[in-house]
Specification:
The structure is a homotrimer.
Chain A (H helix, E strand, L loop, with lengths): L6 H10 L9 H11 L5 E6 L3 E2 L2 E2 L3 E10 L5 E4 L14 E6 H5 L2 E2 L21 E2 L2 H5 L5 E11 L2 E9 L6 E7 L6 H18 L7 E7 L3 H9 L7 E7 L8 E4 L7 H11 L5 E4 L8 H4 L8 E5 L21 H20 L2 E4 L28 H10 L1 E5 H8 L3 H13 L3 E3 L6
Parallel strand pairs in A: 7-8, 11-12, 11-13, 13-16, 14-15
Antiparallel strand pairs in A: 1-10, 2-3, 4-5, 4-9, 6-9, 10-12, 14-16, 17-18, 17-19
Chain lengths: 432, 432, 432
């Protein structure tokens, strides 16, 4: 295994790839079991029929088999070769029907004739098959046998949760959707990066508590918010991880608040990276940030993607496979999230204990730096001066980094040095 | 007649064109009588000598005849051929005088030798004639007879007013100046568009009351403000109409407040039109917005023009005639004002009745839209989501349209659909 | 002498040039005596050892002689030829030593082999010589005799202060550093401009009191702040003068507050000048604005320079001599500061006494201007209208000039005219 080159994440994705997930059912459970190999997830089951805000937890869907046989009895479409072949959440069906009638249940992508599309029929009882357009064109007239061996029964909706307790009960929420079948970027990539991020954050102590959610898209997030409504005020920052394995540049979508601390931290970290990136404004269409940012919650939760959904042709097709995602992209996504968490952890406010005029840095060995060689500790002297000048209890370290035009990490190093020399102390009173 | 192609407005302007108007007198009365053919105007008369703030209502000016005869007794300048020939508000005069002396009373436009300039002598007792520079150059030495048969006597200042009562007493003020003689763009165009706007708004019910003023420039607006000072707090929005018939792009001049709702609505409507337009900042020089926006009133009143005054050579000359204005330009000005009123009418604030997570649009048949076909009602699904997301009682529909980057009308359609489905209700509490 | 062409300032600088100044000692005293020829300076002496915030007033340093003799007994480096040759604040030394050992005490500028660098050893006991790199390369092996005849003894830190009392006790602080030896731009230029500014402001009465400081860099400003801490709240505006004689464009560095009135006034005056200029953001590295803008004081004090320190190769070298500075640059710096003071003096808030509608300017002879000839007093009519429109007690004259896009001086002339006509009065209530 190798965390550094993304090999471990890619292998994890490969293991999850064959599982046929949906918004409910055993596919989700099996996936959560796999995640438990890395982190001690708590698995919740919420019964079908439970009213969650304006929604109702749906029946549990499970699938054993699905195929189309031609008049010769040959399986021309087989769920076991690719689970995208069956429209996800299809009701059971077993019957013979002529091609003309079958066609209204077939979905293809004429623009990409070799790819199989991904379709769902959540919240409406229907059935169907997805196949490549090439294969569709070869279908000859005649009678076909269709079989979808699924069950739609009262059961439960399943999701996983992992809380890493920190020094305070203030939380950072990190959420990803786990309801898609064999699609790698959307969203096995998010599952893998989230799992590894949780694993790494679990090693060490933190100021914040980190809450990881592995939930079915939309209904899972809604169910979690419904079940945890009184506690959501603990969430101070958060982001959704989805589509973080393709070769495109990292994209951060701002929260509804737009200038929340999480938004500013992502903007800072991305702007200081050497890679291309995009920052896009909030919109109410997208992943589960839609629920976290609904007006009744308005949580400071953004969304981390690489190429945004719908902006790459492989999106929601069989071409979103293991070769579409790239280990180095996974690593870059993970590293960025870790850096963001690191900035959140350190983004405190300090007060200069010698606020009247500059303290005499020279007698403390801290002055050689400015315009010349750095001081012994390797901290840039100008950053020392910025920290002293702006540490009036009203500027966070991120404020200082932004105004000084330097890296947060450099500001943080300067802070450590100044605290060590008794020139600075954390301002624990409420942030202004 | 045709409202749609501007023919009716152009005919109305043609009917008003020959009348010799001034800031007082029968020209104004005749003009208001003509407007009454379309709308039930109330005509007010304010006696000469009335003190109105820092000003005094001037004497009433009426004119019967004015000419210059040469030594041969031939009328070489005749008021009855063009009422611009006499300096407006000239005192009576009848005498003979040599060319050298006459010249100090003659005004021409050397840069446009065929045009007659428009000049006034309000608030200073003098007299004069305006003529083309070509004619001026042909004047030979000798004695001339000048006759200006005017009267300047105590009488009154006349203005027209029309209030269309709405559901509330909150008012939209629409004002135009009616004191210019035979000049079409400045401001028969404003009179015609204002009249037709009033006629159209009088058909139907509205949230706002609409108050139309037809007043002599400056002194008329001041007199109205003086007479109605306690009631001006009812004015929530307003605009002045002047020079709205030429072929230039529509120009909106912001109110002194700069970001009043009327300023934002004009900016929104113009930015969504297919035509070129200009938005200019407030300045204290211009039309009667100067009075409405004086610091003691500071009303949210902008000004609608096409090419701004002074930016076209025909301004205040005989070339501002019936061929200078264009029916289609009048229609475009009228249509824009109607659309602005329509946005003002609908720009309310709503609350999402399911603010916690998204409501389940699918079960209401409202979800097919996003990224695909529109829902049955033809409303864009993304706009539905924006309205739901921002309807927290703090965002007006205009706020939502601006943030979503879409048309106000699309937002308004989405609102109607959501209200119909019980997902939204108007927020009647005070707007935040 | 000539103030107008900068000749007097240049001569003053020439007189100060030979004096060997340091942060303490007789060089500073002699310099202050010279300044007293122009303005009645008060000289303060603060004893060595006094604790001033985090600092301690150092010992007094005086120098009689310093040289290096070669083996032949020839003085090859002589303090009396150029006082930069000795590292400023060197401890006394008299001994013989070989070249190899001497070299660790020698400082040169290889990139500019003919120039002598300026070095100091404040706050650390050491000694050294500065010489040209050309001379350094010619040193042959052998024994050298070094002599630095200095004294470092308890004495005092000396600084000068001059307060011009105005109508109010609100102060404008103008400060320059006086601790550098034979360096013309840094900062004999600042001393000369400051002296002449004080001399000119002392002639006449002012609204503000003007406090001029002539202090050793850093420790002098800190000492002054320590000694005057309770009174600094009187400082409403201020600027530091340093490096204002070179041929580069004027540069204004904003105060820590960034949009203080002094920052806006400098921006306005510079933007209306015909010369190139730069406005740079605050940073905590620079001249004594560092102390005035430390978070415990946060005074609205900017810094006036021409080419910023460190951005010209002559900085802190013997090439910063009398030919490096230019009389016209000194005049331009002085003139700009005078204009800034003039704007500060006049930047008051007025109320329109006829706030409802425009006053009738015509009956007061103030109206011919707009779009035509100016009124008798030479004031632009549009500026009159702007002043009337915005004088609501909430807009200062600078606010008006900025919004109207015109010169402050034009606004001020309009104000005088309107006050004379009883249309405006100063708003003495607290500025909103």
């Amino acid at each position: 295994m190798s965390m550094a080159d993304g090999g471990e994440m890619h292998e994890f994705i490969a293991a999850l790839y064959p599982i046929c997930r949906s918004i409910t059912g055993n596919g989700v459970r099996t996936t959560l079991e796999q995640i438990k190999r890395y982190i001690p997830l708590t698995v919740h089951e919420v019964p079908s029929g439970t009213r969650v805000f304006d929604w109702t937890v749906p029946k549990e869907w499970n699938i054993t088999d699905a195929y189309i046989k031609n008049a010769d009895g040959k399986k021309i479409v087989d769920f076991h070769r690719c689970n995208l072949h069956v429209v996800n959440y299809s009701v059971p069906v077993k019957k013979k029907l002529p091609l003309a009638e079958l066609k209204s249940h077939l979905f293809t992508l004429p623009a990409h004739p070799q790819w199989v599309p991904y379709r769902t029929s959540y919240y409406s009882e229907s059935w169907g098959f997805c196949l490549s357009h090439e294969q569709f064109l070869q279908l000859s007239d005649g009678e076909y046998e269709v079989c979808i061996d699924t069950s739609l029964e009262d059961g439960s909706l399943t999701y996983g949760e992992y809380l890493i307790r920190g020094e305070t009960s203030d939380e950072v929420l990190i959420s990803c959707h786990i309801c898609h079948p064999s699609l790698c970027n959307d969203n096995l990539s998010g599952i893998a990066v989230s799992t590894m991020l949780a694993k790494m954050l679990s090693q060490g102590t933190h100021r914040y508590s980190y809450r990881f959610l592995f939930v079915p898209g939309t209904i899972g997030a809604i169910t979690w918010l419904w079940a945890n409504e009184p506690q959501v005020t603990a969430i101070k920052h958060g982001f959704v991880l989805a589509g973080v394995g393709d070769r495109g540049p990292l994209t951060y979508k701002r929260s509804r608040q737009g200038t929340a601390e999480i938004d500013r931290v992502f903007a800072h970290v991305l702007s200081r990276s050497e890679n291309k990136y995009e920052i896009v404004e909030f919109s109410p269409y997208g992943y589960d940030e839609r629920q976290f940012c609904s007006p009744g919650f308005n949580l400071p939760v953004g969304c981390v993607m690489r190429t945004p959904f719908g902006h790459y042709p492989e999106y929601h097709t069989s071409a979103d496979n293991l070769s579409f995602i790239h280990p180095q992209a996974l690593v870059d996504s993970l590293t960025t999230c870790l850096e963001v968490c690191s900035v959140l952890e350190s983004n405190r406010t300090y007060v200069n204990l010698n606020p009247k005029c500059e303290p005499q840095l020279g007698k403390r060995g801290l002055y050689r730096s400015v315009g010349g060689t750095p001081p012994p500790d390797g901290v840039d002297g100008l950053v020392l001066l910025w920290v002293l000048n702006l540490s009036d209890g009203k500027h966070s370290l991120l404020d200082i980094a932004e105004r000084a035009g330097c890296r947060f990490t450099d500001v943080n190093e300067a802070v450590k040095l100044l605290v060590k020399h008794g020139l600075l102390r954390e301002c624990r009173e409420s942030f202004v």
